[in-house]
């Protein structure tokens, strides 16, 4: 009989050594699998002073040719003390046989991005193909992201933003380190 309380029988894997095995199409992004944490700096012409933030990012899969992506950030002061929650987002990165990536990413600020790009040799580049906004969301026109695996434990991230009548330009730069469980 169907038991609704039963645990989901197909949990996500966070690493290559976990079941299920990653789908072959995930090869160009398999180095991202796992949980990453680190710090970044950000700014934008409309928001005054630059800010420093901490961030945690997780990429997982369930054996099919897409990644589940989840990220949350919080602002910190010069000592690293948390100040307040900041951006959160989650989504799906669909990997195509030629290394193209189609990403769907949503944010609680009323922004949904459809981004397309490419994954090759540890670099994943994504740029928005479409942005959908809820009626009260800030006017985001485009974003551009680049994730660079510096080594197996280090992930650099940059994020450019065209929004609130500003041209595409830097919003965020971060360096994340792989979080190991042992
Ligand atoms: C690590 C991720 C991010 C952090 C830490 C961050 C941080 C910030 C901060 C601190 C502000 C100033 C407003 C405030 O104090 O809350 C801001 C504004 C903004 N951010 Fe981000 N952000 C992140 C990701 C994003 C993403 C992914 C987008 C868009 C897709 C985005 C779009 C915007 C926009 C449109 C504004 C408003 C600018 C304005 O109204 O002048 N941010 N962000």
Automatic annotation (TrEMBL):
Record keywords, A-Z: Heme, Iron, Isomerase, Metal-binding
A Gene Ontology molecular function term of the record: heme binding
Pathway: Nitrogen metabolism
Keyword Metal-binding included in the entry's annotation: yes
Catalysed reactions, semicolon-separated: peroxynitrite = nitrate
Residues engaged in binding heme b: 46, 138, 171
Record remark: domains: Forms a 10-stranded antiparallel beta-barrel structure able to accommodate a hydrophobic ligand in its interior. In fact, this fold hosts the heme group, which is located in a wide surface cleft.
Protein name: Peroxynitrite isomerase
Organism: Streptomyces triculaminicus
